[in-house]
Amino acid sequence: MRVVMRFLSELRRRKVIQTLIPFLGVIWLLLQIIAVVTPLLNLSPFVATSLTIFLFACFPVVFYLAWYFDITPQGIKVTEVDYSEHPKPLGFKWWLGLSVVIVGSLMLGLHYFDNARTDYAKRNEGLVNSVKASSIAVLPFRDQSPDSDQQYLAAGITEELATILGQVDGLQVASASAGFSLARQNLLPVDIARRLKVDTLLSGSIHKIGNQIRLRVELINAEDGMTLWSQSFSRELSDIFAVETEIARAVANLLQQRYLEAGSLTSLNSTSSTDAYLMYLRGREQYRLQTTESIKEARRLFEQALALDPEYAMAYVALADTIILLAEGSASFGVLKADIAATLAEQHLAKALVRAPELAEAHAVRGLLLFYLQSNYDAALPALDKALSLNPNLAQVHLWRFAALEQLGRSQDAWQALQQAHRLDPIAITHQYNLAFKLAERGELTLAEQQYRQLIADFPDSPMGYAGLADLYTQTGELADSLDYWQQAYRLSPENNNFQVNLISTMLELQLLDKVEQLTSDKHYEATLLLRRGRYNELIELMTFQLAANPEDPWVAFEAGWYQLLVGDKAQGIELLLQAHQYFQPADLLSLPMCSPALEIAWAYKQRQQAEAAAKLIRQCTDTLPPAGPTGYQDIYRRYLNARLAALQNRPEQALTELSAAVNQGWRQWWSQHDPLLAPIADTTEAEALFSTIEQALQVQRAKAVAKLQNTLNNPPD
């Protein structure tokens, strides 16, 4: 309080108030004059606003000067600080203070001036219902043309608006594909917004007659579904790119405080040929179907678009993207040799980048090419990063970046990239599946299960959610549930070899041998069936024949040796493992997650007293293993592997600890009690109890599986 009183006293002594009151009076008088003159001279109302801001911005400067100077009849004098001395000249500190006050006043004035200019510009354009929001989703535009034959055009406009809005700094834009997926579920706009976690939605319709197109757009509040802004645009089709940028700029100005000038947003997906654009959109329509036939048709349509306009940069990007998908090894679309596809895609991307070097999609597809077809992960990252610097809302690019970072071993960065991909598109199958997989890997099993179930709810006809749950339940020892979900995945995709292999493996583990024989006649499973049926003599005879037929095949020798170790001649098994070693390529020895067959061969060397050879293989295994992560997905494999390593290195206590952890987390392999690598601990009371736990758990799971199969037989799926 004393400080305040002292400050007020100093104000009176320095006569600051006597100076400020006339200054405020001058301001008031000038504003009155401006209010009268502005309409007479037909001046912009913004002139009065600007002058007001300027005058009030000068207030701190006047206050500062009034603190140090007095206005007297003899003129302006420096205010005396100490009456016993003569006034001192103003020094460096005073000039520094004045400079700070002037700069601060200037910045404050510019801030308010910019806000006022923004508000004035928005009001001039009728954007008065603005609402602050940081996220938006573009819903699929409706085709209201007379013949309802312009759906491809409506979808193209939806994608393009999402792309242009994605260039706006500070605005998160949900992937257009997410909007397409949710719209097919006939959800209300508010429900779509809740699922995509966005503040606003942009919806609209198109009406095309001849060469004329009318667009009606609505900006919707996600909380209550109320329309915040709507407008209609009637143009010729050739002006579609200008209309799209105009809509995007209006929306950005409605949602954000700052003002985007006309021309600040541009559509790089532009062409001088309307026919080329329509051909491109028809290609995009086929591309979205994601079948081999549709991708081939998309390629043909993109090539026709380029024939109509050889300068159409976006068509070159789309063609390159399509060719990459058609490369061998891609998601069932492979019809081109990978090297040929890479060469063609690179040529088209080079043409696109020459014509539009700032086209985000071109850099994105180049990153995909380097990553997918050339396995050049280090070079792929800068290309993907460049794409995201131009448009940070490209959800698919974040996913590609996640995959590249995973290959480079940058797990934490990869996890962040995956999370961003899922934020922008929480609906895409690949995003949901990868997120669930990584959640399980991080030990968040409940969240992983929820995500897989959400995937099934969104895409009940996709096998990926079922396969994810099946894999998850395998890792937690719930083999009956795993079998059930593998069956559902296999039913939806019977040509997927991975699904069939996992389904059969689970049946073999549960000893549902008749079901395996009903499902497949593949000779590959003959040896395992003989083993599980206990027909050991026939098994050894079969493997002897296989060895004679394939004398230099390392995998045949390894498999034969392994069966000998389990149920046959141990010495013969050791010999076969060592024989297999000489034919294996180094890269084939360390297959994760079990470092097999390196560890089995190391054990064989150890039995032959060749400790150095055994130690070398064990060291290669431990050097190959990634750092141990949190308890989660596939941790049971790591635990069992650790138990085998500890047993090989004469650390029985650690071997028992790791084996116990594996069993407790869900390890249910029936052959564990026969594993020769665990022989040093197999006869201990602790190990026998763990093997008994495995056997009992398998019996329980087998009974549950039989009951589930019987129920399915009585109530077959539709």
UniProtKB/TrEMBL annotation:
Domain of life, per lineage: Bacteria
Transmembrane segments: 20-41, 47-69, 90-113
Key words, A-Z: Membrane, Repeat, TPR repeat, Transmembrane, Transmembrane helix
Record InterPro entries: TPR_rpt, Ycf3
TPR repeat residue intervals: 463-496
PANTHER family, A to Z: TETRATRICOPEPTIDE REPEAT PROTEIN 6 (PTHR44858), UDP-N-ACETYLGLUCOSAMINE--PEPTIDE N-ACETYLGLUCOSAMINYLTRANSFERASE SPINDLY-RELATED (PTHR44858:SF1)
Stated name of the protein: Tetratricopeptide repeat protein
Species whose genome carries this gene: Arsukibacterium indicum
